Each structure stands twice: as structure tokens, then as C-alpha cells.
Amino acid sequence: MRCAPEPLRRSPAILPDDLAPRAACATIARVKIRLLAFATAAQALGAAAAERDVPEGSTVATLRDALAAESAALATCLARSAVAVDGALAAPETPLAAGCEVALLPPVSGG
Q: In what order do the strands lie in the sheet with 101-105?
């Protein structure tokens, strides 16, 4: 989202202060989460665990989108993986709070 300055006042005498933006762009607060990846998700991510900064208000869905944009292998893996937040399976709309633990759980097979 772009921040736009307030429109200039139209008056006969425009002072230099009137040329400055009235509102500064608000910075987006970020929160740190712990990301755990297992099996093929760890291979695609390149690590079994990592810390990430995400924008405040992020959800499981926005995290999935951000991770999928990093690599095609990760996108493929995430398409069929479950996600858990703080040990419980999470829906796409689940919010991510500061310090939460997000686990990427690809399907497993074996015998």
C-alpha cells in the first residue's frame, strides 16, 4: 500500500511548510515466528527450523503465499501440506502471533 501525502491547500499564498506531506507513511509492524519444516518441506525450505519476520496480522494463508513465492519446490510442497500453529492443526485464516511456532507438515507415507 502506498502512502500519499494530503493534498496541498489551494490558497493565494503557499508557504514552504505547505509543500511537506502532512502524514508520514506508517511502518508495518512485524512479528517474529518460529518455522519448523519436516521431511520434504525441510528440503524445499533448506532448513528444518528458521525464524521469520512476518507482517503483524499475518495468517496461515498469507504465510503460505509468502513461502510459496520463494521457490517452486516450496510452492509444490505447501500445496499438499498441513500447517500447525503452536501444536494444533490450523485453518488458513488462523492468525500468527508474535513468538508462535508454525510447523509445515507434508504428507507422509511408509510402512
A: 49-55, 30-37, 101-105, 82-85, 88-89
Is 111 within a domain?
Answer: no
CATH code assigned at 62: 3.10.20.30
Greater model confidence, 107 or 108:
107
Q: How far apart are CA 98 and CA 32, in angstroms?
A: 5
Domain assignment present for residue 44? The answer is yes
**How far is the C-alpha of 78 from the C-alpha of 3, rounded, in Å?**
33
Does residue 75 fall inside a structural domain?
yes
Cell numbers describing residue 78: 505447501
> pLDDT digits over 47-99, tens only?
999 999 999 999 999 999 999 999 999 999 999 999 999 999 999 999 999 99
